[in-house]
Specification:
120 residues; mainly alpha; 53% helix; 0% strand; elongated; DUF983
Protein backbone atom coordinates (compact mmCIF):
# COMPACT_ATOMS: atom_id res chain seq x y z
CA UNK A 1 0.00 0.00 0.00
CA UNK A 2 1.44 3.38 -0.98
CA UNK A 3 1.48 6.26 1.44
CA UNK A 4 -0.73 9.23 0.61
CA UNK A 5 0.61 12.72 0.08
CA UNK A 6 0.30 14.16 3.61
CA UNK A 7 -0.39 17.70 2.40
CA UNK A 8 -3.21 16.57 0.12
CA UNK A 9 -4.63 14.48 2.96
CA UNK A 10 -4.41 17.45 5.33
CA UNK A 11 -6.13 19.71 2.80
CA UNK A 12 -9.02 17.23 2.68
CA UNK A 13 -9.05 16.96 6.53
CA UNK A 14 -7.86 13.36 6.47
CA UNK A 15 -5.20 11.62 8.54
CA UNK A 16 -1.74 12.54 7.17
CA UNK A 17 -0.48 9.03 7.94
CA UNK A 18 -3.02 6.94 6.01
CA UNK A 19 -5.23 9.45 4.20
CA UNK A 20 -8.37 7.59 5.28
CA UNK A 21 -9.54 8.57 8.77
CA UNK A 22 -10.82 12.02 9.70
CA UNK A 23 -8.30 14.51 11.05
CA UNK A 24 -10.87 16.50 13.05
CA UNK A 25 -13.53 15.49 15.58
CA UNK A 26 -15.47 18.73 15.21
CA UNK A 27 -14.94 21.77 13.05
CA UNK A 28 -11.40 22.46 14.30
CA UNK A 29 -10.79 20.03 17.17
CA UNK A 30 -8.08 17.55 16.23
CA UNK A 31 -9.05 13.90 16.79
CA UNK A 32 -7.10 11.98 19.41
CA UNK A 33 -6.47 9.00 17.12
CA UNK A 34 -7.09 8.15 13.50
CA UNK A 35 -10.09 5.84 13.21
CA UNK A 36 -8.55 3.99 10.25
CA UNK A 37 -4.89 3.43 11.21
CA UNK A 38 -4.78 4.32 14.92
CA UNK A 39 -2.15 7.03 14.42
CA UNK A 40 -1.84 9.25 17.51
CA UNK A 41 -2.83 12.79 16.55
CA UNK A 42 -2.84 14.27 20.08
CA UNK A 43 0.66 15.73 19.79
CA UNK A 44 -0.25 17.67 16.63
CA UNK A 45 -0.44 21.41 17.20
CA UNK A 46 -0.72 23.94 14.40
CA UNK A 47 -0.40 26.97 16.65
CA UNK A 48 -1.31 30.31 15.05
CA UNK A 49 -0.17 29.34 11.55
CA UNK A 50 -3.61 28.75 10.04
CA UNK A 51 -4.96 32.03 11.42
CA UNK A 52 -2.05 33.96 9.92
CA UNK A 53 -2.59 32.43 6.49
CA UNK A 54 -6.35 33.02 6.69
CA UNK A 55 -5.73 36.69 7.52
CA UNK A 56 -3.27 37.06 4.65
CA UNK A 57 -5.37 35.26 2.03
CA UNK A 58 -8.83 36.54 2.99
CA UNK A 59 -7.47 40.02 3.66
CA UNK A 60 -5.84 40.21 0.24
CA UNK A 61 -8.91 38.93 -1.63
CA UNK A 62 -11.42 41.15 0.18
CA UNK A 63 -9.21 44.25 0.20
CA UNK A 64 -8.43 43.98 -3.49
CA UNK A 65 -12.08 43.35 -4.39
CA UNK A 66 -13.32 46.20 -2.19
CA UNK A 67 -10.80 48.65 -3.68
CA UNK A 68 -11.67 47.54 -7.21
CA UNK A 69 -15.40 48.01 -6.57
CA UNK A 70 -14.78 51.39 -4.94
CA UNK A 71 -12.77 52.68 -7.89
CA UNK A 72 -15.05 51.19 -10.55
CA UNK A 73 -18.52 51.86 -9.09
CA UNK A 74 -18.12 54.16 -6.06
CA UNK A 75 -21.02 52.69 -4.06
CA UNK A 76 -22.09 54.14 -0.69
CA UNK A 77 -20.33 52.83 2.40
CA UNK A 78 -23.34 50.74 3.49
CA UNK A 79 -23.05 48.72 0.27
CA UNK A 80 -19.43 47.95 1.12
CA UNK A 81 -20.48 46.84 4.60
CA UNK A 82 -23.21 44.57 3.26
CA UNK A 83 -20.90 42.95 0.73
CA UNK A 84 -17.47 42.74 2.33
CA UNK A 85 -18.18 41.95 5.99
CA UNK A 86 -20.14 38.74 5.25
CA UNK A 87 -17.66 37.79 2.52
CA UNK A 88 -14.79 38.17 4.98
CA UNK A 89 -16.55 35.96 7.52
CA UNK A 90 -17.48 33.29 4.96
CA UNK A 91 -14.02 33.25 3.40
CA UNK A 92 -12.33 33.03 6.79
CA UNK A 93 -14.51 30.15 7.96
CA UNK A 94 -14.04 28.34 4.66
CA UNK A 95 -10.24 28.64 4.76
CA UNK A 96 -9.40 27.93 8.39
CA UNK A 97 -10.17 24.19 8.43
CA UNK A 98 -8.25 23.20 5.27
CA UNK A 99 -5.31 25.42 6.22
CA UNK A 100 -5.19 23.91 9.71
CA UNK A 101 -5.21 20.45 8.10
CA UNK A 102 -2.32 21.42 5.83
CA UNK A 103 -0.32 22.85 8.74
CA UNK A 104 -0.83 19.67 10.78
CA UNK A 105 0.08 17.52 7.77
CA UNK A 106 3.22 19.60 7.13
CA UNK A 107 4.20 19.05 10.74
CA UNK A 108 3.73 15.30 10.23
CA UNK A 109 5.56 15.24 6.88
CA UNK A 110 8.58 17.08 8.30
CA UNK A 111 8.55 15.04 11.52
CA UNK A 112 8.31 18.28 13.49
CA UNK A 113 7.09 18.40 17.06
CA UNK A 114 6.61 20.98 19.73
CA UNK A 115 9.68 21.49 21.87
CA UNK A 116 9.24 20.28 25.40
CA UNK A 117 11.24 20.29 28.61
CA UNK A 118 13.11 17.17 27.65
CA UNK A 119 14.22 18.77 24.36
CA UNK A 120 16.08 21.64 26.01
Amino acid sequence: MSRPNPLAAGLMARCPNCGEGPLFEGYLKVAARCEACGFDLRSADSGDGPAVFVILIAGFVVSFAALFVEVAVRPPIWVHMIIWLPLTLILSLALVRPLKGVMLAAQFANKASEAGRRDV
